[in-house]
Specification:
The chain is mainly alpha-helical and 71 residues long. It is built from 5 helices and no strands.
Length: 71
């Protein structure tokens, strides 16, 4: 979400640029675990390093766990 917001893109626009479904973006932003292939596509669309995507995902997972979530 943070990278998408910097581009001022909707979930649909990011999904289109990355070649994934909008529901995939929704799932990821809700703390779901994307595939490596999806992470690569998102990194390319957002013009960021793959490691940046992984760091954001790890931070989301930590917040969910801290809140008592199951993801």
């Amino acid at each position: 979400r943070e990278h998408r917001a910097r581009q001022a893109w909707s979930q649909g626009e990011l999904a289109s640029r990355a070649g994934v479904a909008r529901k995939t973006i929704l799932m990821i932003e809700a703390g779901g675990c994307p595939s490596h292939r999806t992470c690569r596509a998102l990194a390319a669309a957002l013009e960021v390093d793959l490691e940046d995507i992984a760091e954001v995902h790890d931070a989301i997972q930590q917040r969910i766990q801290a809140a008592g979530g199951r993801k």
